[in-house]
């Protein structure tokens, strides 16, 4: 087996002009079963002979040798030159297995058992396709690209799902931290802290129910690179912006911290409830097809 292929390779089967063609993938490398492809030329019976005749051709050997020189640092160039000198002679015969063993090639490999046959790197397999049937090669390229597009869509879907789950779990976690892990000091009822609070914490307590320091103490790891507002929802950030404007006006009016906190607390509760209810209605409308 090619050194480019791991034992944990993924196998896919595509249908090309009613012929099943196996593709083995591993580490971003795709190898296509040219034994399957050979059936497009002469059925099952002569697949091995078709591959042998193709490999012994001088132009094929030059293509294989050039590919190996480009991608295989362990390719035995001397052995390759020996084969190239014999190419074209009536007595010259070369199998895929002999080519691999003598030159240490990685562009081809032979597999026994299930999905058995001779496999070629996609670059080489497409070249083989040109030799046996240009029409078959075009359909092979089309089905191969369809497979790659399908795999990409599946990977993107899995990535989006993981991102969504990760975000959901994180929100659940931060909500639990807010409700259960934060110290149970009731800042709404115990207003002694107001004398020492800055304006930012006035808004934090009105909206989040805790000061920035309290949040940092309860979330030591998160607080190394983030602050409480980094985990606010869109609705909370919207309300926070409104609270900043309201607070500025209340300061101009000369209201005390205690007075301003009470007003801001009421505004925050009212606006959050309105926005959250609007979100619920959007979800219901989507579910009802509106």
UniProtKB/TrEMBL annotation:
Q: Where is the signal peptide?
A: none
The UniProt record lists the KilA-N domain at 10-147
InterPro entries hit by this protein: KilA/APSES_HTH, KilA_N
In terms of superkingdom, the source organism counts as Bacteria
Pfam families on file: KilA-N
What is the protein's given name? KilA domain protein
